[in-house]
Amino acid sequence: MSFSVWAPLAERARVRVDGIDHEMTAADGGWWHSDAAGTEYAFLLGDDDVPLPDPRSRRQPGGVHAPSRVYDHDAFRWTDRAWTGRQLPGAVLYELHIGTFTPGGTFDAAVDRLGHLVDLGITHVEVLPVNSFDGTAGWGYDGVLWGAVHEPYGGPDGFKRFVDACHARGLAVVLDVVYNHLGPSGAYLDRFGPYFAGRNDWGPGLNLDGEGSDEVRRYVIDNALGWLRDFHVDALRLDAVHALADRRATHLLEALAAEVDALSAALGRPLTLIAESDLNDPKLVTAREAGGYGLHAQWSDDLHHALHVALTGEKTGYYTDFAAPGALAKTLREVFFHAGTWSSFRGRAHGRPVDTETVPGHRFLAYLQNHDQIGNRATGDRLSATVPPGVLACGAAVVFCSPFTPMVFMGEEWAASTPWQFFASFPDPELAEAVRTGRRREFARHGWGEAEVPDPIDPATVERSRLDWSEPARPGHREMLDLYRRLIALRREHPALADPRLTEVDVDSAGSWLVLRRGPLRLACNFGGEPVTVPLGGQASETLLAWGSPVVGDTTADLPPGTFALVR
């Protein structure tokens, strides 16, 4: 067995294999190598006798501070050889967290619920990060060993079984990966070499453009390719790419997109990169031959914010600007509300317009809720906790009738009553207390009392956040689930609803009502508290789907509060 590690500043390196130390030989580029027999291993740098896990570890059965374990990808018996993948246009995504999706909180337990997703009409399952992090429970965004699958979920074989099972049911798998920072416990990369460069809001950031950054960039790209190739994942969601500090002529994202496209050609199936970005810059999803980075899609927070204001009436913080008349209509037509325009939250102009003539809408994900927008509220409350069912239904109708790629957060489809709260389980008492007090201070600035903010370290916080799978059959939840099924089915039955051409979108709105026209179809919604009569902008011949008791005439619709009608 050959062991290798990049440690360009070390004068000596050893590898401890099954308790026995072996000297390593220096090679070009700062790499060290040694041959030894065994399965448990760790590296020792210089004369330090503290063993460190492999930065490129494939398995960490003892946690992020323990030795790494040799893992053979070729030993797993895949059954998905006939899988040809799924493209993003026409897709419907479902975001889930393995630890709280089921009572068991494992990959194998999640497999038992995949039939629900197939019945709902989902095409892509987006999984929150499964890389190794310290502790047993957490969101996954504090990972420190990016190539090792979190053991409490089932480890690497468990994740492969999950992906294999998804493919057997026609579901593509999207994996959330975090390259913008490392977590606060177990981040040993800087002991090996110049991996870090500064900090961002969440932790140490990577050195992507300084001295020694070639190997750091390779570290990121190899990790991404590994998920797609070795775990058969179909797409990656790249967390907060605006926090990737890279001043090179070829940005890391562009380099990554080029290599993923090459791997896609080699594997013969679509591979997709989806960014989360706060930049409102269409360059991310513009093709490389047109001067962009060549990513395939990005989340659309502006649409979320505009919908959130329309549904809830919240107008504080970054929601303030989205209370402007016509904000929702603008985002449906133009994607970005802030497109080189003033952002009061930032105190400056923000964003750049999307070229609606050339950029298709499927490159932007639309959602009512996601893990961030729920979990980063003080109590982790879902929209269903405060918004009437009819208004929720209107919001869902807008998402699924939009020209964008829809995404559902787990449990949203049945208006789950369970919250999804922020939780962690750091074993270090000092770190756990720092997370606890930091969370409470953060929300105290927004008027929340300490007693109102759930303790993120308390195991009860995780338990509260698990889905209750008895709810979908109950009154109130059952009707919402049926609505989501019908909306997804209609999106497939009527090509105009999935048409990604932004030039084909027409929207009218005033006050609490909105009419979205998609080819021969008209969606009329009333988000407000008073009845309204809205012009349909054409002759109505048939009502395809309705919520509440709208009255559809020839050219107008009378909408009570919290109702919608989709007509043809």
3D architecture notes:
Belongs to the glycosyl hydrolase 13 family. Keywords: Carbohydrate metabolism, Cytoplasm, Glycosidase, Hydrolase. Pathway: Glycan biosynthesis; trehalose biosynthesis. It catalyses: hydrolysis of (1->4)-alpha-D-glucosidic linkage in 4-alpha-D-[(1->4)-alpha-D-glucanosyl]n trehalose to yield trehalose and (1->4)-alpha-D-glucan. Helix content is 26%, strand content 21%. By secondary structure, the protein is an alpha/beta fold. Strand 27 and strand 28 form a beta hairpin. Helix 6 packs parallel to helix 7, helix 8 runs antiparallel to helix 9 and helix 11 (389-401) runs parallel beside helix 14. The longest helix is centred in the middle third of the chain and has 18 residues, at 213-230. The radius of gyration is 24 Å and the shape is globular.
Task: Give a topology summary.
Elements: E1 2-6, E2 13-17, E3 20-23, E4 25-26, E5 31-35, E6 40-45, E7 68-69, E8 93-96, H1 98-101, H2 107-111, H3 114-120, E9 124-127, E10 131-132, E11 145-149, H4 155-168, E12 172-177, H5 189-192, E13 196-199, E14 204-206, H6 213-230, E15 235-238, H7 252-267, E16 272-275, E17 297-299, H8 301-312, H9 327-334, E18 341-343, E19 348-350, E20 364-366, H10 371-375, H11 389-401, E21 405-409, H12 429-444, H13 459-465, H14 477-493, H15 495-498, E22 505-510, E23 513-518, E24 521-526, E25 532-535, E26 543-547, E27 551-552, E28 556-559, E29 563-567
Parallel strand pairs: 8-9, 8-21, 9-12, 12-15, 15-16, 16-17, 17-20, 20-21
Antiparallel strand pairs: 1-5, 2-3, 2-6, 4-5, 6-7, 10-11, 13-14, 18-19, 22-23, 23-24, 24-29, 25-28, 26-29, 27-28
Helix pairs in contact: 6-7, 8-9, 11-14
